[in-house]
Target: Methyltransferase-like protein 22
Amino acid sequence: VWRGALLLADYILFQRDLFQGRTVLELGAGTGLASIIAATVARTVYCTDVGADLLAMCQRNIALNGHLTAAGGGVVKVKELDWLKDDLCTDPEVPFSWSPEDISDLYSHTTILLAAEVFYDDDLTDALFRTLSRLVHKLENACTAILSVEKRLNFTLRHLDVTCEAYDHFRTWLQRLERLSDGRLRFAVEPVEASFPQLLVYERIQQLELWKIFVEPVA
Model:
């Protein structure tokens, strides 16, 4: 589990009221940690990633931690969501595909989207933000995306210096969303101060950041 997922999980635990009774979509869930934590208070959590083996692992982790979500009555649904495809997989023969009822629920009720530590590769970041934009344009309600990122320093031959190219690319996308004007949605971006209590075991380094994107219809 990467530190960014633990930071996001800490934030969910701190802001439980924000998630109370909500429908949540996690993009690139990995082990499913943030989805499991969110489901302790949320109504429904769609835990998504790509690859049958990875999604099966998520399913096992959710089952192993069912005692955490049972008290609040939250449901975690593991689904495939490929950022390189425009549509959700609805083929019932494919493991972790979407039923019409789940798709209807997703678009009708989702108000929070999560993504942790998926911004380490420019192509992946591009795919994530395009998927995010495509999804929020289909949601019936205003929503908030909460993104966790680690600012990684790397020496590059191109610059012959230590740079944060993946992080810079992530920040460029945030700026692009704020400038976006398609007449339908407005995107407002703000950093989240990481001063909330640390309940999980990890090193909360300065390079860990949380960002919120508020998405609202244009009046």
